[in-house]
Request: fold
Amino acid sequence: MTAALAVVAVAVAALVGGLALSGASPARSDALPGDDAGPNQVEAGALWRSEPADKILPPQLDREGTEAYYRLAVNPDESCEQLPAPFRRALGKAGCSHVLEATYLDSTESVVVTLGVVVTSGSEAERTSLFRTWTADSFARQYTMMPATYPVRGSLAASFQSGQRIAWKSGISEDGDYLTFAVSGFADGRHGPTAAAFDRGDESELQADSPPVQAADDLATYLLTSITALGPARNGSQS
Reply:
């Protein structure tokens, strides 16, 4: 694979009972899979158990067990302001505490995907309400809801800007503690549909068999399942 993986130093801690990406160093363009960089670690906060950060945004993930996606870099910006305004409004009173995201390239170097985790910050009742009202399928058809991409300098994802977005999908945990999202496009830099065409869903690249559409759907679910499996506990309880 010609695009190099980046290894970043990240710490994921609970400041309000959520995940937070902090202390990120600049992405390295010379780090390859099997590089001897020290493992990233999740800080053992009072509200979370210690887990390797690579379990949250792993260096490699396998879509449907057959297609590998490789992490190019983790976004050092964890601010909620990077989410589009309609997305933040849809979070309602549950709000947003932090956003963790990384960009991946598939093994065929044809699809790029920005994967993200949105950590909520509201009360238990507000988070539960968000779970009940979040409509992932409906939102996936709204252009203004689609998160921005995270381009990676010096890689095949360098041109992965907003205009190259093809599809996106989200998921939410049953307790409303966090949402996951995947924004996908083609690695050759081709433009995605216009906002109007996206909302209509009438472009060929938006059909169910389109690789970016399949990747967005599968990887948003993959990330949600992966984080749920970590089993973080709230209210100071330890697992």
Notes: The two ends are 39 Å apart (CA to CA). Residues 1-51, 232-239 have pLDDT under 50 and may be disordered.
